[in-house]
Amino acid sequence: MPTTPLKTMVSETMKNCGAAAKLDDEGGLAVISPVTGETVAQLPEHSVAETHAAIARANEAFRKWRLIPAPRRGELVRLFAEELRKSKENLGRIVSIEAGKSPSEGQGEVQEMIDICDFAVGLSRQLYGLTIATERPGHRMMETWHPLGVVGIITAFNFPCAPWCWNAALALVCGDPVIWKPSEKTPLTALACQAVFERALARFGDDAPDGLSQVLVGGPSVGEALVESEKVALISATGSTRMGRIVGPKVAARFGKCILELGGNNAGIVCPSADMDMALRAIAFGAMGTAGQRCTTMRRLFVHESVYDQIVPALKKAYASVSVGNPLETQALVGPLIDKTAYDSMVTALAEAADLGGVVHGGEREQIGPDSAYYVRPAIVEMPAQTGPVTRETFAPILYVMKYSDLDDALEQHNDVGGGLSSAIFTTDLREMEIFLSAKGSDCGITNVNIGTSGAEIGGAFGGEKETGGGRESGSDAWRAYMRRATNTINYSTELPLAQGVTFDID
């Protein structure tokens, strides 16, 4: 494979991260950068047999790691955060190369990893259980939390490292080893992160067993082996709803645990009282950031008829003027789509919307770099109704805009889609805000007021409802998914009273 400037950048950046991996295995997995559409590395793939061997190593590591005190486990994560800070620029560059993100978004993803590590370090001293009132005198009842087992983490291309760390940082402090199967489109980021983690391991010392964190590069067969193995206690999978429909039943069939972070057809509502300048900025980032390739991307917008002619022209102007370009060479806000399949999906959705009476603004392909790179102008589509492609998630920068006159009707439409991840309302009316946050309001796992649908912080649990999968990762009490609960009753009396007044006397 001939050397190109981008391939040289990949090699140098991976070396800076400490990942001296073989990048030119001609028979392996081709890593294609969406920035230029060129192959920047070819990696050897793990086999199913190697996957099972990794699972066995992880289970052996679990036997040892679960016995290390949680605050000591937290020390490893603290050291990892230090190494991430040192490698933030290099890791961010790999993210930009593999996923096409702007430098600020690439480094922002690494910052998410640092943030969740900081959160997990504090959590390592707060894995609390409850003391529970008991009806029996001379007894004490409580719950305790114990390490769960091996955690298999399957990630998607659009966030190639942060979701892994959401899981890994919490799993490690909870006492669980992790096995990471990254997207076939972004394996270099995973290898670079693993190399940085191994630097932390070297500083941590002998308490960390072999096999505590492993990366498996490969296709569906590797993921399937993880999903079907009874020796993997928890599968955390990020991807499409279609993928979740496959993974969920397979894990359930073996009574394993699952965290599913799937699709989202996210919407915003612009009310008459909204701060229009604020709403404009929030909608623009939420809909165009990462070229529309976020699970939290704003894809639908309901605008009150009284302000429609105020905000929609401003949005169209922003869409027409936003910078689109190579994220490694320009300051462009919108980078490339991941590949031709993503581009074709966008073209198909726009054509279907137009056939249904939608007025399309933008959406054209931008000729930036080689023909093998797919850059597009983000699209706004003014739709007469929520129908056709509006009801589905297209992983591209398309924002469908519709008028509404009654908030209750807008909420009905807002909730009348499969996805239930993120949502937003723009209003300064207290009643509208509270209705949106109430039981009759948004049915999403993330419900925002006067901010967009994207940009969640690690302090709150991340995840959604309905076809989004129902899983929760990152902050709040998401740590419980990585542990098993035991309810304990201790009798310190000389009697044996039974609960509920049951008697069972024997001579």
Automatic annotation (TrEMBL):
Keyword hit for NAD: yes
Protein keywords: NAD, Oxidoreductase
Its EC number(s): 1.2.1.3
Gene3D superfamilies: Aldehyde Dehydrogenase, Chain A, domain 1, Aldehyde Dehydrogenase, Chain A, domain 2
One Pfam family this sequence matches: Aldedh
Active site per the UniProt annotation: 261
Source organism phylogeny: Bacteria, Pseudomonadati, Pseudomonadota, Alphaproteobacteria, Rhodobacterales
Coiled coil: none
GO molecular function term, any single one: aldehyde dehydrogenase (NAD+) activity
Protein's name in the database: aldehyde dehydrogenase (NAD(+))
The keyword NAD appears for this protein: yes
Complex and partners: Homotetramer.
Top EC class for this record: oxidoreductase
Family per similarity comment: Belongs to the aldehyde dehydrogenase family.
InterPro entries: Ald_DH/histidinol_DH, Ald_DH_C, Ald_DH_CS_GLU, Ald_DH_N, Aldehyde_DH_dom, ALDH7A1-like
Residue ranges constituting the Aldehyde dehydrogenase domain according to the UniProt record: 29-485
